[in-house]
Structures are given as structure tokens and as C-alpha cells.
Amino acid sequence: MNELEFNIRLYLTGTMKSWTDRIDNTDQLTPQRFIFNAMTELFDSLSDDDLELIRLRYMERLTLAEIASRYLINESTVRHHTNPTIKQVKKIIKKGNELSIK
User: Where does the RNA polymerase sigma-70 region domain start and stop, copy by copy (predicted)?
Assistant: First the structure.
């Protein structure tokens, strides 16, 4: 499991919130809190359908073809609805990792 999938799974299962709350009991913005807050903002902005596509891809580990088949849509449609979110999550993780280096 790569870092992207790991963070998405942590977030969608609620584990990230639990861990973040335990790690950071100060008012300072820790890398974990930054990632959690940014992912919350991003995922809250998604439509229910887009969130479901992300959930199927990263929680259920379905392929793009399996998701497309399930919803009778093209794989490119699945990509179109998930890729912008995935790119944003990658940026969030990168920025969070940069915060932990400082």
C-alpha cells in the first residue's frame, strides 16, 4: 500500500482523526493535523457520487474497470471524477511531509 492509499484509507475509516487527536493536543499545527484538516476540507467539498468513487477505488480496492462496470460508465469518466481529488491529496501529503521536515 502506497502513502496515498494509506492516507485515504486512514481518513475514510476515521482512524486519521483518532490518531491526530491523540498526537496533537496543542494548538500548534502539526503535520498530521495539517493533513487531516486539508483532507477534511477537500473531502467535504466532494459530491456524494465522487466520494463514493474514491471509496470504491481506495477502500474496496476496485479497479477503474470494475467501478465503471458497476455504474455503467466509462473508465475515463471514473478518472475524470477521481483524478483531481487524488492530485490534491498528493499535494496535501507532500506539504504535510515538508512541514514535518522543518
Answer: 43-91
The one-letter amino acid code at 46 reads L
- Rounded-to-10 torsion of CA 37, 102, 10, 19: -80
- The pLDDT value given to residue 18: 85
Domains defined along the chain, listed by start: 34-101 (1.10.10.10)
| Residue 100 dihedral angles phi and psi, to the nearest 5° | -75, -20
Residue type at position 100: S
Residue with cell 484538516: 37
Please tell me which residue, 54 or 33, carries the higher pLDDT value: 54
pLDDT in tens, 6-45: 999 999 999 998 887 776 666 677 888 899 999 999 999 9
